Amino acid sequence: xxxxxxxxxxxxxxxxxxxxxxxxxxxxxxxxxxxxxxxxxxxxxxxxxxxxxxxxxxxxxxxxxxxxxxxxxxxxxxxxxxxxxxxxxxxxxxxxxxxxxxxxxxxxxxxxxxxxxxxxxxxxxxxxxxxxxxxxxxxx
Length: 140
Description:
With about 140 residues, the protein is of the alpha+beta class. The protein has one domain: YjbQ-like (Jelly Rolls, Sandwich), CATH 2.60.120.460. It is built from three helices and eight strands; from the N terminus they run E-E-H-E-E-H-H-E-E-E-E. The longest helix is centred in the middle third of the chain and has 14 residues, at about 55-70.
């Protein structure tokens, strides 16, 4: 089964689209029908299939997750124990647990069967830049 690894360099919290890279991989394999499994190899970021037309969607998602899991030095997060890696680390793990580290996309007629406004995103939950690895696996 074909697979490849993508590397995404992040610049802090936010959504980083990689739809085109995944599409290139699927097309290069010339598989008519199948399933693309996408897996991120980290615990403080996640994957999303989300709207890629209006940038306000990305801003609102980032703001929402900041409200439900603020930094651990926020008084509302006083109960957190894991603090060794900075005030953004445990909230990043919470955000990752609420989203997903793996998504699957059907391949139909040689292309990902995403909707018109859907895109694939790495959702970085840490403040500082990171190099994130994403595995793409195509099966028939």
